[in-house]
Amino acid sequence: MMDTAKLEAVLRRLPGFEALTGCERLSAGASRETYRLGVVIDGAARTLALRRAPGEGHSAMGAGPGLNVEAKLFSAAKAAGVPGPEVLLVLQPEDELGSGFAMDWISGETLGGKIVRSPELEGARRSLARRCGQILARLHSVDVQAAGLGDPLESFTPEHIVRKTHAAYLELNTPQPMIDFTALWLLKNLPAERPLTLVHGDFRNGNLIVEPNEGVVAVLDWELAHIGDPMRDLGWLMTRSWRFGATAKAVGGFGEPDDLFAGYESVSRHKIDRKAVHFWEVFGSFWWAVGTLSMAQSFRNGSEPSVERPAIGRRSSECQIDCVNMLIPGWARRPTSASDSSGELPTRAELLSGVRDFLRSEAEAGQKGRSQFLSRVSANAVDIVLREMSFGPDANAWEAQGLSAILKTSGGLAEMRARLCAAMRAGDIDLKRPDLHACLRDSVFAQVMIDQPGYAGALECAAAT
After folding, report:
1. Fewer CB within 10 Å: C terminus or N terminus of the chain?
2. DSSP 8-state assignment for residue 217
3. Helix 122-140 crosses helix 257-268 at what angle (to 10 degrees)?
């Protein structure tokens, strides 16, 4: 919870500040807190944005630069021609509010689904991919040393970031064969070396503010910025998780790659390495598959008790099915539904259905803002449990059968998953084996049908069945 008395005392450092009139936490932002602040400055009502983390300001996705450095990144990018807000105030340790900064509020649309579908943004979408390419070229031109960012920002080669991400996954101790398979593919297909630049790290639909007349008016959320391969930002913008169901448009669900690349080349004067962009697109799904599991782990260890965290963890299967579709596309087996034959009245499914319906109707309707959002997340979580009760037994049975045939051994499902992952990492299994591909497709498809059956990647895989 935000201590508004302390916040108001901090805001008095702003010239002309008179009063804090509102403080609302927004639902967006799974790893940082974002607040909309109403203030009075020089007698006029204004709206500000506050980015905050209760602790040191590191992202749940890794250490990152921290929010104090993120404030510097906003300023350096703005000086290079990247649209964004002006940072007005940076929180200090003595403020006792954690790490963060206040900045101008910029109006526009940030919700990815609305950006790809809203009729009001139809005109903006026509040039949005090209505009993103131009912005990324300017972002990559930032002189990090001159901006005082050389020391705070980490530097990653492609191999380093793949191994770092894979190591983070191994620490979770939750064997996911498709994640290991994708990591090995990435290490065998590393892009050509090129000069490293400032990389945003999370430049995607959902981290942009888009306005009907001007297009992109701000680039947000610099918490994953680093020094690395500039092609990573282009591949991340094309990562399938951030198309919001608009699969026909590879760039953020709103544009075409040729337009993105043309915009980039028109400003940077450097030719796009399309093979590298594809590598980073695959990496994007791999990285987010691990990232979602990391967020679930923060719930499991008690550091982030929100219901949002375990729900996000179940999104790993979405990213894994995207890796399946990009690396080993083909037919996947659909799990069958099991009936609840316990004879209980009411059944487990009926009890859970009642909870879900309450959350979707009365609880959600009686809330607003983040509370309404969390009611929706809770209802979705109950739906996942219901689907797992229905499809899980069949899916687990034939996954175990497939793993047993590949490993030529038997055991519990979790044990055999771990054995397969270890065998792939050791090079004891040929990654081109058709039966391995079939087992991976089947198991990941079954999981995403439990977690999110309407996800575009699941529908793409289902179309092949």
Report:
1. N
2. E
3. 40
